């Protein structure tokens, strides 16, 4: 899990290391936009913009959706994933604890039952 | 990541669920195979608590465990951590035998979280509902154990950076 997140973080930082890509994020923070719009705004070729959006998409910072012939970009799902990762880590910690608790309680319950049987004899 | 969740071992194992109820509150539930009286004791007696509170997978060793489960009573758990031992401590604020326990977590200074546990017995098994309430969203976000926490904090910093970038361009 830590390794997964580290990789993810590296990808995020790499994605943010470029001024154009930071600009694209700012732009998408205001409104969704097509790759053509973005290419025009940043005065670059469609191919060049596609590459930048690809890097941001890989980092989960941007997601894209093709509607007809137009590919629309919006801010990505990364926040939601963080939440999921956090909750799952929390769940695992308690799950491991409760597994151990189960063992202790089962042992005590068994012991108590066998003591009761002995007492009745 | 999903594969890991689904491939958990254990034939007869009850599910642990976690739900974030609000920005400041998380609720954990789990059914334990035994009567409430015994589960309650496992929570409130040091010699039992130390047998399960720190599973091996946590990568930490419990150096000492003191528990005085009475209203106003204290607990103190010391872990063998790097670079120096880490202590977790607080005060019991509610103790209702076999049904309810609540304690404060004071290691973080003032305004720490409060943990409330209820025990509900059904057919010889006990439903444990554990609620952790934090004073702020930030405190909850930062909670947990292990190295992965630093990652969450780093992500928060990344978010702040993105917000800052968004603000600076909006003018």
Strand content of chain A: 5-15%
CATH H-level homologous superfamily name of the largest domain in chain A = Winged helix-like DNA-binding domain superfamily/Winged helix DNA-binding domain
Mean pLDDT of chain A: 83
The shape of chain B is globular
CATH architecture of the largest domain in chain B: 2-Layer Sandwich
Task: Write the CATH architecture name of the largest domain in chain A.
Answer: Orthogonal Bundle
Main sheet properties of chain A: 3 strands, antiparallel
Work out the helicity level of chain B: 25-40%
User: How many DSSP E strands of chain B?
Assistant: 8
* Distance between the ends of chain A: 54 Å
* Widest β-sheet, arrangement of strands of chain B: 1-2-8-7-6-5-4-3
Q: Tell how many strands the DSSP assignment of chain A holds.
A: 3
CATH homologous superfamily designation of the largest domain in chain B? START domain
Number of domains of chain A: 2
3D structure, described in words:
The complex is a heterodimer of chains A (121) and B (171). Chain A has a three-stranded antiparallel β-sheet. Chain A folds into two domains: 2-76, Arc Repressor Mutant, subunit A; 77-121. Chain A starts with a helix and ends with a helix. In chain A, α1 (2-16) packs antiparallel against α4 (46-58) and α3 crosses α4 (46-58). Chain A is mostly helical and 121 residues long. The longest helix of chain A has 43 residues, at 78-120. Chain A has helices at 2-16, 19-30, 35-41, 46-58, 78-120; strands at residues 33-34, 62-67, 70-75. Chain B has 171 residues and is α+β, with helices and mostly antiparallel strands. Chain B has an eight-stranded antiparallel β-sheet. In chain B, α2 packs across α3 (46-52). The radius of gyration of chain B is 19 Å and the shape is globular. The relative contact order of chain B is 0.14. Chains A and B meet through α1, α2 and α5 of A and β1, β2, α2, α3 and β8 of B.
